[in-house]
Amino acid sequence: MIQSRSAVRISKLLSLMLRHRPDEFGLEVDAFGFADVEAVLSALQAKDGEVTMEDVEAVVYDGEKQRFEIKDGRIRARYGHSFPIDLGVDPAEPPEFLYKGVSPKEVEGILSEGLTPIDRQFVHLSFESEVAAQIGGGRGRPSAVIRVAAQEAHEAGVAFFDCGPTVLTEQVPTEFLTLEQRPEREAYPPAPTPPPANEAVASQEVTYGRRRRFSSRR
Predict the structure, then answer these.
(1) How far apart (Å, rounded) are the C-alpha atoms in residues 208 and 37?
(2) Sign of CA dihedral 69, 75, 81, 87
(3) What is the pLDDT of residues 48-84, one digit of tens each?
């Protein structure tokens, strides 16, 4: 069985190759995002000579998030692309609600302007609010959660694509968005107020440190 650390490394390399920068690895992807699996294996082995096809297949078939798929000797990322691809699937009827975890700083802009992709081809939505909260705010930071009235948006013509653990859409107008929850803690701790310049220094001790970080919910 492939070790967990190796699986994570292979998954990250596959994401880089198939979602973002295939040219950097000498890979050719078709209109649907597929690349030759042998060529991908060779590119992986250039980074780690011990990677085998069995390792790649374990990441593809055993991955909980179903990030990749292999068909007819070709492999692709199923979602998360930063360049345009044809998903090759028809729009699907979504559940009543879907959810998007975002940084608290983004909430007002999203509610006033709508949900649109930032550095991806599609907006990624979760089936559950709790899942959206875990992945939305960035590493170690609490998320706000936007609720999407997906069924209403679907009836109004917004297309949704079911990609297993996530649902993709090109955009969601503001009328279908509400704030589901705010994070329990502020995204950033308030900066301490400096004492007045003429106030006597109570102690000569000076401490240095990094801004407090919240533990990751992942």
Answers:
(1) 50
(2) negative
(3) 999 999 999 999 998 777 889 999 999 999 888 989 9
Residue from 176, 106, 196 nearest 144 by CA: 106
Query: Radius of gyration of the chain from Cα atoms?
Result: 22
Structural contact between residues 100 and 115, judged by C-beta atoms closer than 8 angstroms: yes
Query: Is residue 10 helix, strand or coil?
Result: helix
CATH of region 4-77, choose from 1.10.1020.10, 3.40.50.720, 3.60.21.10, 1.10.10.970: 1.10.10.970
pTM exceeds cut of 0.70:
no
CATH topology for the 98-181 domain: ADP-ribosylation fold (3.20.170)
- Let me know: does 52 contact 89? Beta carbons within 8 Å: no
Q: Where are the domains of the chain?
A: 4-77, 98-181
End-to-end CA distance of the chain: 24
Hey, what amino acid is at 25? F
Distance, CA of 144 to CA of 98 (rounded, Å): 14
| 172, 153 contact by CB (below 8 A) | yes
Interval 27-46: pLDDT, tens: 999 999 999 999 999 999 99
Q: Please state the length of the chain.
A: 218
Please check whether the two domains, 4-77 and 98-181, share a CATH topology: no
Share of the chain above pLDDT 90, in %: 60
Q: Could you give the CA distance from residue 144 to residue 111 in angstroms, rounded to a whole number?
A: 12
